[in-house]
Design a protein that fits this description.
single chain, 2 strands, mainly alpha, 513 residues
Amino acid sequence: MNRTAPLTRSRKVGLFLGPLLFLLIVWITPETPFLGKPAHHTLAVGTWMITWWITEAVALPVTALLPIVLFPLAGVMPIKEAAAPYANPIIFLFMGGFMLALALEKWKLHLRIALNIVRLTGTNANGIILGFMLATAALSMWISNTATTVMMLPIGVSVIEILRKRTPSSKNDQENDPENEDETVTKGTHYFSLTMMLGIAYAANIGGVATIIGTPPNTVLAGILNEKFNYTIDFARWLAIGLPLSLIMLGITYLFLVKLLYPNRLGNFEGAQQVIKDELAKLGKINKAERIVLVLFLTTAFCWIFKNSLNNLFPAWQLTDASIAMIASVALFVTPIDYKKGVFVLEWKDTERLPWGILILFGGGLSLASALSAVGIIGIIGDGIGVVGGSLNVSVIFLILVTLMLFMTEVMSNVALTAVLVPVVAGVAVGLNENPLWMTIPVTIAASCAFMLPMATPPNAIVFASGHIKVSQMVRVGVFLNIIAILLLILLANTVLPYIFDIQRGVLPDWAK
C-alpha cells in the first residue's frame, strides 16, 4: 500500500493559496465590460483548481470535484450542467479501457505479452523504452490515443515490475533518489519506471498527429474546414506532414527522457534473457482464459481501428470509441471462462482496482472547459487576437496563436478548445489575407502537444494513475517538450506545409474568399 504523501511546503501553501486567489478574484478584482459575473467567477474557480492541481494540495480527483461545488454556488451554471461533463462519452471510453486492462491483469495475459516484448526488444533498458514508444505511437496513428494508452499501460507496468525484481543493484545505484519515496528502489530503476510511463503517454499523443484520423482535434479541423470553406484535407497530404513531424518529435522526446532529464544508466540487464525465458516457462502454454481475453481484446482493437468502415457497412450501428468500450466492458462480465462453475472473465469485485479517481479527474477538466466556453471567455480571447491583428507582424500573431493553443490545452479539453478556437484562427487568417491552412493546421497540431499536466490529455491522466509519476516530474519534462513543439511547428509552417498544401504566403486562395 502506498504511504500517505508528506505535507510538503508546496502542499501547505497551495492548500490556502487556491481558495485565497478565488476570493481575491471574486471580491477584490473589479469586473470589466468584457467579463460579466459568470465569466469572472469561472476564472476564479479555474485559478483555484489550477493552483491545487499544480501544488497537489489535495488529491487531484478532489480538486476535480470543485466545479460541481463552486459553479452552482458562484452562479456560473446549475449543478445539472456542471455535473454533465462527468458523464461525457470519453469518460466511458476511459472506463472501458480500464476494464480491458483489468481483464489482462487478472488472467496474466499482460504479463505474457510483456515478457515477449522484452524478449524481442532486447535487454537494454533504453531499447525497451524506445520499443514501447514506437509501438504506442504506431497504434495511436489509427486508434484513439486513450485506447492505445490503456492497452500499453498494463504491459509497461508489468515490464517495470519484472525488471525491478530482477535487476541487480550496483553500488552506485544504491544512492537514494530524493524524489523517490520507496527507499528499496534504486535511482536507475526509478528513472526507468518514470521514463517508461512518460514515454507511453507522450508517444500516444505524438502518434495521433501523424494521421488525420489519429486524434479528435485533427478530425475537428477537417470538419470545420469542410463546413466553413467546403475544403477537404485529404489523408495523403496530412500524412506527408504529420508522419515526419511525429517521428521527429518522438525521437526528440526519447532523447530528452532517457539521455538528458532522467537517464537510468542501467545498460544491459545481466542474465535478463534467461530470466525472461524462466518467467515464460512459469506461465506455461497459453490457457483458455487467456485466449478468451485475447480474442475480446483484439476484437475491441479491431472495432476501434475499423470503426468508420464498420459504420459504413452497417449504418444502423453508428459505433463510437465510447460505445465500443462499453460493449467490450459488458462482454467481459458476461463471457464465461467456466460456465458450470460460474467463472467469468471479470466479476464486479474486480473493479475495486479500477482507478475511479482518474475518471473524476478528467470529468473535472471537462467541466471547467465547458464553463470557460459557455461564459464566452474563449470567444473573448479570439476577438482580442482579431483586434491586435492589424498592429502585429503576421509571424508574431502565428506564434501567439500556436503558443496560446498549446498552453491552454494543458488545462482544457483539446477537442473543445479546437472546436472553439480553430474557427477564430481561420477568421484571423482570412482577415490577414493568409491561407487558413497555414495557421489552422499548426494550431490544431499544437492541441495534441500538451505534455505538462496529467489532466491535459487522456494519455497523461492514464499513466499518472500508475503511481510512477509525480506532477512535478511531468511538468519538468513537459516544459521542454512544449517549447520544442512550438519551434517545430514554426519550422513546419515555413518549410514543408506551404509545399505540401500549395500555400502562397500573403495570398488568399479562392476557396477561402
